[in-house]
Amino acid sequence: MSTGGPPDGSPDEVRSAPPDGGAVDGPGGDVERLRRVAVATLEANWEHDHTVPSRTLYPHQWSWDSAFMAIGWAHLRPEYAWRELESLFRAQWADGRVPHIVFNPRLPVGAYFPGPEFWASERAEAAPTIATSGLVQPPVHALAAWLAYRRAPSDPARAALRRLYPRLVAQQRYLATRRDVGGAGLACVVHPWESGLDNSPAWDAPMAAVAADEAVMRAYRRHDTAHAPAAHRPTDLDYARYVTIVASYRDGGYRDAELARRHPFLVECPLFNAAAGAAEHALAAIAPLVDADPGPHRERAARITEALVRRLYDPATGTFQPRDLRTGRLVPARTVLGLAPLILPDLPASQVTAVVAEACSARFGVAGRMSRPLPSYDRTAPDFEPLRYWRGPSWMNINWLVRRGLLGHGRADLATGLGRSMAELVATAGCHEYFHPDTGAGLGSAAFGWTAALLLDLLADERAPAPAI
């Protein structure tokens, strides 16, 4: 097995060829061939101490991508899981934030937009010496570290946990203090990119209030539409707003103290905060291994869950919805963000029941079942777009999170169907970035890292008992 380069066969073959065979446990299913395709993809994307999401559109290191990669590497090369996480946390800022992009200095200027010259992180007081973005992403890293350790416990793994633990605690502290803009116990995202679901309809209303800077619009050239059809990507206006929001944060020195007064986008996101709660549960499990007290983590986890239910659960719709802090209102769009709190083991039973019903409804499931992958947006909405980035397509990482939540809440029946449909996506199209939610056609970048990593976890876990954080 390769230590860093592509496996046997050309990179193009690895990226484009879907596996033969069916889904997990399906007729004619070839689990081993699915696994080989996932391994080949992950190995081809390894970059000396981390895994790039794709060799085309995403050539740097992304934050929550690396967490998912670590989960996959734990099944294959456990030492790579720890190298993945530790390389990311070497770029942690002094204030505790973990940047959503760590730039590879070996790549030329202009290899990606917005690149390090746009972010200008070196001008911020808390930034590290390596070039990064100034935003964050959902804090799934503590969960990834715990799962990696549980999959392959060893003395080196425990030593890695000991090194990572204070950094993971600092990450959580940053989100719980500097990002609690609303003062209600939830972290606030300051850009759609921080949510992970960049182009979700959940951000349409908050984004509509952002006046795109015409000078910013003229000053950049998009790279994403060179790798995917424009009809599958965010619109030019949305992208201009994204860049305008970044410019506002950057020009304020990435200082969070002024967010409430001057920043144009402030939203409490259900997925982001569910990830923060799950991180505290994971840290409570890690703490005894590193001679720390798990009690404070359990207490913080309980507070996050309580705040999520109080602030973001809508009894009228039976789902969780983001809260726009600029207006004080819940965002009405029914997106897959609302299902993410299922990953919290202490989510109250009434909310579990309601969210499972939402997941099985015509908006996301089919006839009360979960026999096909979850779309990222309500299938019944008039503006549902099955081809456009986060406005309809299915993504392996979101389906993986929801499946994990279903198992944790005793719904193995639903988790089995969802897991089978996830494997079928790769069996049909290969390890694509995202997929048409109904046909399974591969969309976005081919040979996508987290699709491969989480497929490895799915294949290993398909017959495992319900997980415990």
What's a concise summary of this model?
This protein has helices spanning 11-16, 31-44, 63-76, 78-89, 116-119, 141-151, 155-177, 192-195, 204-208, 214-219, 236-251, 259-262, 270-286, 295-312, 349-360, 396-408, 412-429, 449-461; strands at residues 46-47, 50-51, 61-62, 101-102, 188-189, 267-268, 313-314, 319-320, 323-324, 329-330, 434-435, 442-443. The protein is mostly helical and 469 residues long. A hairpin with a 4-residue loop joins strand 7 (313-314) and strand 8.
Walk me through the topology.
Blueprint: H1 11-16, H2 31-44, E1 46-47, E2 50-51, E3 61-62, H3 63-76, H4 78-89, E4 101-102, H5 116-119, H6 141-151, H7 155-177, E5 188-189, H8 192-195, H9 204-208, H10 214-219, H11 236-251, H12 259-262, E6 267-268, H13 270-286, H14 295-312, E7 313-314, E8 319-320, E9 323-324, E10 329-330, H15 349-360, H16 396-408, H17 412-429, E11 434-435, E12 442-443, H18 449-461
Antiparallel strand pairs: 1-2, 3-4, 5-6, 6-9, 7-8, 9-10, 11-12
Helix pairs in contact: 2-18, 3-4, 3-6, 3-18, 4-6, 4-7, 6-7, 6-13, 7-13, 13-14, 16-17, 17-18
Region (Disordered): 1-30
Keywords: Glycosidase, Hydrolase
GO biological process, one term: protein N-linked glycosylation
